[in-house]
Model the fold of this input.
Amino acid sequence: MFSKPSSSSNPVRSHVGSAPAGALRRARRAALISLAMLPVSCADLSPTNGDPADLAEGDTASAAQELSLAFPIEGRKSLVVTNADILSAFTLKDVLQQLIDQAGVSLTPLQLFQQLMDTNRKAADGLGLGPNCDDVVIPGSDGSINGWPIDCPRAVGFEADRDPFADETADNAYVATTLSNRFDLAPPDGANCGEYRVVFARRSGMTPGAFQLRNFIIFEARLPNPTPSLGREGCRPVVDFWYGLSDPSETLADRRDALHDFYFEGLPGFEPVIHIDHYGQNTGPFGGQIRTNEFLFAPEVVGDPPVPFTTWNLREFRLLHTGSGTSATLVATPSFVKDTPAAPLFDPASTDARAVTFRNTSFPSLVERLAAADDINRFAFEPGYPTTMNAGESQMIGLQNNYFATFGSGTSALRTSIQNKLTAMGSTLTPDQIVGRAFSLSCSGCHEPIGDATGSPTVDLDLGTTDTLAKTAPFVQTTEQLESDPIEGGQRFAISEALTEVFIPFRENVMADFLLNNPILGLEKPGAWTSTQAQLSLHTGRAVEGISSLQILTPGTFHAVVSPNFSTAGLTIGNKITVDLFVSPAQPNPSWVGNVEVLISIPSAGINNEWAGNVPLTPITRGSFQRLQFASLATATKNALSATPRPTDVKLQFNFNVTTNSGPYYLDNVRFEN
Done:
């Protein structure tokens, strides 16, 4: 059914519980396809040359840069879905059964659930189904993951003795609370289409005030791009599908059925979201994962008297399968938590070899990327960050995760190294803000941000940005608490203020930019723009639209930056070329930065390297994106750009005449404006 086979030798099978079959199944399938084919993509703009595949992100790409969407993106329909009626179609048992069927193993959903929970117990007390927390003991701790200490055992391990499927209304049963669209996590090269998540919560936490009876299991699938040669354009059916959920003509039942099929069956040509290869089977940062977020501590769970108080804890797992037939295995395997350096690494006094490397090399190399972002949503570590530095778990409080406690406030070589990097960039950020940004990327830093060494709830996490990570939903971004749903009617599960005010608006913009804008002029396609003098790369930290800008390093004085050929089909054509440009505040010669000029070519119209304006860079504000507009285009040039049929051989060349090593510069959002 799907273009990419499972890495298992067994055929992929879908288990959908009591879902209807026959004609109703075919009708639902048709509805799913129709949602993915709404007339919103650039392929539907009927360009005058080539077929839609040629329009993707190729050398003659075209898109509707400034058109309006057919209907607004509704964040609670197309990005974070928590309506209780829609979520009722998703059960933990069905998810586990689908994974079991795909692996071809002789397990039951109960056995796979118990094996996952049993990882929190010591082997002597466990079920013998898989790994346990004390498999690798290190000095000072009864258990470890990735060479770092973990709590072992934890009370949540007693879930392995319970059956969450025996009574779906019982406190120890699990209910789906959230479906999450994370297309914004798709990399610029389109190697995959981002993550698609489903969150399950223990029903005991639905009772107001049941703070000590909460557990979440989050399935975070990384969806492969079936046509990676197209780049992110290969993911367009997925984006169109999620956008289509905002269509006001679609009923709640339509959306429920379509989402169920997207997760369990997949769009045409795509694997289903729920797939054994999407949760860590493939190594690396884009393999997907299963995470747990728990604070399960009460006599109901662990007996009377209860075990000592334990903190909120987040852990990460890889779902690994091997073999086939009677030798097939499927095991939830504990793993390090991604993008979560262990806090002892920041300790200036530590002689641990990992800490020495981290302070001297690893973290200083991350400073530029952490600093080069003005939006919380764009914080990231550099690719290639050593995974050996990642902690085995992430906690609300504790040695593993309070970076400020170990970094300290005094003078240290690491603090000096961070400051030197910031000074070289011309950044006004402080070392503490950089450490805070690293902390915000960790599980606990995102879910329960703290701002000082004491973990005081009254001290905000200072990131050097306008937006903050509000602490309105303790240690969770999505909750199991119900509220009325003013959009869909009925009830929905509440979400955090950070989601509604910071994360969802950003993800809406990423979706809209992808649906409407030209990937060439939006600087979204790796390797599209070229230069024989400058060093070019896409930068996902500094951008004004979409997911990236073009970073330009200038080792000399003259640097020509050239676009590929592109079509103006679907573009609004004004008489001036306009760009957004970021000029580095750290200039070798502050009194003279240089200038940038633009040339335009349309060979089919007899226009070759026509000068289209020059802008001096010395007067413009440095350290932020500024709108630059060049001289008016010649009338004949504007007419050629908007001719019928639209030209497909338009090329722009930006010439940077600047002081040597005066970059980096960041170029974004090229357009034609009046």
